[in-house]
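Reviewer 2 asked us to include a model.

Predict the structure of this chain.
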Amino acid sequence: MLTTDQKGAIAEAKFVAAALELGVGVYVPFAQGGRTDMLFEIGTRLLRVQCKWASLYRDVLVVRCCRARRNADGLLRQYYTADEVDLFAVYSAHDNRTYLIPFEDVPPGAVVQRRLTAARNNQARRIRWARNYEFAATLQRLGAVAQLGERAAGSR
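Predicted model (structure tokens):
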């Protein structure tokens, strides 16, 4: 059984590799403990990224976009703000995929649920599909794919 620190390290490593494969610049802080795990350079922007590990519940990826620590009073949850994080980088060990969720797509309560397969009742409206948040798909929505294509063509 992996510890939360081990899961975090695996998620960060998967995202660094995925970003580099897509031509995204990655910057990692020198010291641990900050609210941002890494920065992505997309065009002229530096985006603050917090890495998370996804759990699987039936056919739904569940991501808790907060920090949880134990103290004398019990479990203390600390929520991220838009001033601290731009993107949540999510790794799913279930399907060995990386997902990228913009901060504005995280609901109040900081628990993100993304469906992998169709619902049993065939409901299709208001479903948030995991495939729409795959790393490359989100980069495309952020406007990075055209820039990445230009970068790849220029390096040949």
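The CA atoms of residues 1 and 7 lie 10 Å apart. The chain has one domain: 4-155. We have added this to the supplementary material.
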